[in-house]
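Why run this: before we spend reagent on co-expression, it is cheaper to look at a predicted model of the complex and decide which construct boundaries make sense. The entries below are exactly what would go into the expression plan.
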Amino acid sequence: MKLRPIAGVVVRQFYLMRGSPVRILPMFAWVAIDIVLWGFITRYLSSVTGNRINFVASLLGAVLLWDLFTRIMQGVTMAFLEDIWSRNLLNFFATPLAISEYVVGLVATSIVTSLLGLAVMLVLATTLFGLSFLSLGLALAPFLLVLFLFGIALGIFASAMVLRLGPASEWMIWPLPALLSPFVGVFYPLSTLPAWMRVVARALPPSYVFEDMRAIVTGHAFALEPLLGGLALAVLQIVLCAGFFVHVYRYAVRSGLLARYSAESVS
Amino acid sequence: MSNREADQRPMRLDTTPVLRVTDLCKRYASVVAVDRVSFDLQRGEILGLLGPNGAGKTTTINMVLGVLAPTSGTIHIAGVDLARQRSRALARTSFAAVYAALPGNLTVQQNLRVFGLIYDVRDLTRRVESLLEEFELQRFRDTKCGVLSSGEQTRVALAKAMLNRPELLLLDEPTASLDPSAAQVARARAQALARQGECGILWTSHNMYEVEEVCDRVLFLSRGRILLAGHPKRLPHEHGASTLEELFIRIAREPLDAGVSR
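The model came back. Tokens follow.
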């Protein structure tokens, strides 16, 4: 794997963002809206319950983490969709660019844009609503890492879906985080879920993040083992999703789908 | 014999064909798009790939570019097997085609820099500047490609195709959207590049005048098969036609009954 071709993929995204406020704004706008909305909801809930439950940490913290995950996943897919929208796949894949270099370039772009989004989220949540996330210090790192890794895995999976099903399938990838959110228990313990949903939850790394975060907020001991399990699961899923992307790419090269992508021929 | 005088070419030690296509086939279910196509392209040579629409020209080019896998057969670029060492083979290749415009939302300079990085071009800033000058694109350097005229976009695509100093250059109807003057300049540049002796060019065009002027050799494809091969000026007379265009029309209309040998 060479660094300069990967840099080419990242620099392309940088050029696009630099000259386009409409690309930069969504990196901050939606997370800011979510933080403000949920910030006031938590304030209201805290006032009606007489501050007996720490809603700021449990609800606003959960929103922040979920938004971060969504941002990462969309960071990968948006970078990929830029190549779909500008019909650039043929130009890119007729070069020495290896498929692994291309995917790493998409992921690197997403990491940079997500970190910018995370910084805005933290500033807003801390200054406006007193969420003291940073007080967790390094303990926060494994939680963020799991969400980063799973966001990357889902982003690669979603990009592979669009590559396989054609440009019109783009709408299918946007609701994916919302589809997963009931299973991972963003706002409630997994014990709330029926048994079959808990089985699904166990396969989703964010479940371990939110369960552990709730334990910390409610004053229980921090359980490292489940989080490590979630971490291992997320790494495995990245490998599987990258394998899926390569599989779809090879199919596209074999079937002619890549050479005539705009025809949306999926047969 | 070539259109150019043989003694104009520099002497080369490397005699490996820059492109060797052997028994190339592509089938889509029951449709045979390319059928046992074999040819070599030498350094310093411009080879015309001719044929009616749907003959298999673009399918062949897509396979050489690695974006379409052959059903069977092999492709070697400067001796490197494309199927086994894709990146190494494509590092020596480049292309420009009317159907593969560069991203319109990047400027000319940005596009050249992005593809320069992808091709791992050394001393990229200097290379980009030199191409902007060579293709008279300096005044468009900060213009987004999407707002350029089709002729200007073609010049950008040709500049991008030269970024990595390719040994194999695939030009799929490169002058289709150029005015006669710009087309003549593009042809002259391609000929000059081939004359340096390092690069072989595979050229497709429906302009038979252009093919006669530019190509050293032509292959006629029809229904995925090579029907004829030879010198663009002698081939028509060898097959009872007065011009290349007349021969083309005959083959396009009666590809299997033209009475021409392979």
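Confidence is low (pLDDT under 50) at residues 1-11, 257-262 of chain B. Residues 12 and 197 of chain B are 8 Å apart (CA to CA). Bring this page to Monday's planning discussion.
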